[in-house]
Amino acid sequence: MDDITVAVLGTGGIGRRALELSTHKEWLTPVAACDRHGIAVDHEGLDVTELLDATEGNIASRNEQPDDPATDGGIAIKRSGEGEGVAASIQGDHTTTPIDDVIAESELIDAVLMALPNLEHDFIPRVTDQFVDAGYDGVLIDVLKRSRVIGMLDEREDRLVDSGITFVCGAGATPGFLTGGAALAAQSFVDVESVDIRWGVGLKSGYEDNRGTVREDIAHLDEYDIETAREMTDEEIEAVIDDHDGMLEFTDMEHADDVLLERAGICDSDDVSVGGVLDVRNDAKPTTTTVKVTGTTFDGERATNTFQLGDATSMEANVNGPAIGYLKTGVRMNRNGVYGVFGPAELLPGF
Amino acid sequence: MDDITVAVLGTGGIGRRALELSTHKEWLTPVAACDRHGIAVDHEGLDVTELLDATEGNIASRNEQPDDPATDGGIAIKRSGEGEGVAASIQGDHTTTPIDDVIAESELIDAVLMALPNLEHDFIPRVTDQFVDAGYDGVLIDVLKRSRVIGMLDEREDRLVDSGITFVCGAGATPGFLTGGAALAAQSFVDVESVDIRWGVGLKSGYEDNRGTVREDIAHLDEYDIETAREMTDEEIEAVIDDHDGMLEFTDMEHADDVLLERAGICDSDDVSVGGVLDVRNDAKPTTTTVKVTGTTFDGERATNTFQLGDATSMEANVNGPAIGYLKTGVRMNRNGVYGVFGPAELLPGF
């Protein structure tokens, strides 16, 4: 497979880890990165170590203005130095239009990883529109979680196809890694009756670097929704955590796993349940991340296949490895002329 | 996705189950099937129920002549009726050249499932040559197990590409399903140190219908090799089973999982171990089929991810579901102009 050049939008926890992971993969060259403050571009390949060092010191997510096309997900801000965030890197320049600036360079970029949280439902769809309007013809990939965003991307299917874009959505840990596991595990069965996804995240496993994600998670708690979670201050977020003694348990989350598995023909979205436990005070995962697929074989037996992640694997490892794996598949599809919107499970062999 | 037409070579356990499974999938239409005795072709779609009924009554594998291009894998023979095997079906005709006869129809066939055991190493490669010589330009897929056959197919890579053939090899349960699970599970890790595949098969789970496969398995026992296993009579096979009290345990098998995972860039072939336990006297699986992938994450943690099949899933379900899943992916690749030899793990997103 040929080399792949990638731009990373957002240098929060996910974006930073994607950049770091790229140093482990010779075939993957990050050529652009941006946050709300700046952009760094080098078509020969960014100096990732310098960029990460210069932008070290994560600040938790700010209150967002809904119409602000920010690119942070837990913003990486360097307090010292001449600029903030990416602009603090010697490779970076200050900008007020980071996404437009990436788009201006996109003819040489094979794939764009949108490492953006999506507190505003339409944020990723709107960024997508910007790429379409500019005639981009590569891969867009996001790690979104919310079911309803998929529909908004589907509405753009025709325009994406016309532009020559292959969009892989929800390609992080869940959905993404775990829906992939479910799709594969489903191959024993002619009829899948349930997919049960339950994740565990501990402090060491990723909370500290992923406060933006935690805000999204809080929106899943019974008493909250996206709007209230978005408006909360960091202090209010901390107070919610205190109220739960640091252990947040989620059931029946609105997680895109359901619609993505239905799209892939694995089962009805109603048959998918997603929940998890987040422990923000202990290193150990409070529960082992597990996918259970229960179904009936062609010869009439009912059974459950299981896909389970080792407790020592961090959230970052389980988000970013699969994201880059799906990105690679997306680029292969794009180079073969396959365009449109795809969920991760659709990229797996589908029985 | 558009519909797929398939030919099934061999109507032993695997071939019969593939035909049966096709009735669960609207998009998959079997249009040809053959065994050493006959061929049935209907480009509108075979009547699978009639064909299976007419050929019911499996006979275990015969001693093969190495140069005999037989198409049986545990041959399905009907003892009553005018013909044997496929020729006994009202859709079937007697033939002495079943593979040539399928090739003659292959312009309208999207994919060919080679449900053939491979006691002679070069049998599947030789059948492949026949398809290449005839200018076939669709998908060939097999469920072979032996590492060395992959090399023989690789030698044919250029000719396959020139012909426009997409060859997916080793697409059954193991390799195939389990290497797919390993490839997916590996995505947490930047360095995979080991892939440990251990399968369990009980009587109910598939032995009865898969005696040809058992013969191949016996070749993996310490005291045997391919040549001696091939020459054994059914009675001698039974004697081996008796000697082991019906429970055959295999370690360090020469299973294509190793080379297929290396091809996909998951790990070195030396890091893959394959073993299993076959109980030919009890219904229950003697051990739960499990894939363990141990590696190191980018952030330095060592962990093991696990993919496990429910004990009630039969060998047939775990061979044929994935085989058809990989077939579907192979056809998609073929239609996109992607030709050559691919292992199942290469069809998964590869981080």
Descriptive overview:
Two copies of one chain form a homodimer. The first copy, chain A, has 351 residues and is an alpha/beta fold. Chain A has two domains: 4-173 and 317-347, 3-Layer(aba) Sandwich (Rossmann fold); 181-311, no CATH class. The relative contact order of chain A is 0.16. In chain A, the strands form two sheets. In chain A, strands 4-3-2-1-5-6-7-13 form an eight-stranded mixed beta sheet, sandwiched between helices. In chain A, strand 2 and strand 3 (38-41) form a beta hairpin. The first copy, chain A, has helices at residues 13-22, 48-54, 98-104, 123-133, 147-154, 157-163, 173-185, 203-207, 211-218, 226-231, 234-243, 257-263, 315-335; strands at residues 4-9, 28-34, 38-41, 92-94, 111-114, 139-142, 166-168, 191-201, 247-250, 272-279, 290-296, 302-308, 340-342. The two termini of chain A are 26 Å apart. At the A-B interface, helix 1, helix 7, strand 12 and helix 13 of A face helix 1, helix 7, strand 12 and helix 13 of B. Strand 12 (302-308) of chain A pairs antiparallel with strand 12 of chain B, so a sheet runs across the interface.
Summarize this entry quickly.
The structure is a homodimer of 351-residue chains. The first copy, chain A, has 351 residues and is an alpha/beta fold. Chain A has helices at 13-22, 48-54, 98-104, 123-133, 147-154, 157-163, 173-185, 203-207, 211-218, 226-231, 234-243, 257-263, 315-335; strands spanning 4-9, 28-34, 38-41, 92-94, 111-114, 139-142, 166-168, 191-201, 247-250, 272-279, 290-296, 302-308, 340-342.
